[in-house]
Every structure is written in structure tokens, then in C-alpha cells.
Amino acid sequence: MEINTASAGTLESGDILVEIIPARQKGIEIILSSAVSHQFGKQIKQVIFQTLSELNVTDATVHATDKGALDCTIRARVTAAVCRATKTDVWK
Question: Is the model's pTM score more than 0.85?
Fold first, then answer.
């Protein structure tokens, strides 16, 4: 699956900005910036990775700037970013 640069989300409280860029190497790289990463960083990365896996994304770099997003918001933002990056609609 070809990945182009795309993003979804905002920097508002309770949201997350997810930026997807083509991978420089094989695999998924997640770069997380969050004030609560010491408490929830592992969970946030797990939700991002799981969502990418469900969408069959195997090679990408994800920059995520979290502002207190819930898991459902993280999934929605990752899904929207992937749809934009691949020019596909996962809801069809």
C-alpha cells in the first residue's frame, strides 16, 4: 500500500494530531509527543499500531501529538489520516 503524507486531527484539548509520512525503512515507526506519555504512552502507541494493522498499513512513520485524546478519537484520527494518505475509503 502506497502511503503519501497526510494528517488528521487538531491540537485542541481532548484531540490528537496524527501525521503519516512514507516510511524510510520497513515497518511502523510511531513518534509520540504527549504530556501524559509517561502514564498512557504505551496505550496510545498500541492503539495507533493496532489501527494501522487493521487497515493493512505495514510501512509508515507516524507523528502523533496527543492532547488527551480517548482511544476512540485516536482510532478515528489514524483511520482518517490513512484514508487521506492512501486515497482510499475504508468505509466502502
Answer: yes
